[in-house]
Amino acid sequence: MNVELVPRFTVDDAELSALHARAFGNDPAEIQPWSERLHRHALTWLGAFAGDRLTGFVYVAWDGGTHAFLLDPVVDPAHRHQGLGTALVKAAADAARAAGCTWLHVDFEPHLKPFYLEECGFRATAAGLLRLP
Known about the structure:
This protein is of the alpha+beta class. It has 4 helices and 5 strands. It has helices at about 15-25, 35-40, 85-100, 115-120; strands at about 5, 40-50, 55-60, 65-75, 105. The protein has a 5-stranded mixed beta sheet.
């Protein structure tokens, strides 16, 4: 598979929402305002393209200083287990490092622990989460 990673690509909200729907089982008719959100809050974002098809995505938010946050990493189910997720995380980490960040945070579900800790080089930390109603 020949895939190109494209930083800060022109986001099509419907296309990115469809990728998320395929990957996470979201309602495919629900279109999120990705472009606006990314332009307001992201240090950077990357898309993985197989030809003209978006097959992966990740974005990096930050505090404007040393902390960056990996958000919404996703790979199309048809393209998983080929190293694409790892390549997206590495490119996101490189971009955060280039911006002067010294920390990249990520939250993940337990079944993704081997991916983030073993494949991507994160280390486990204690963290807290507060759901805001």
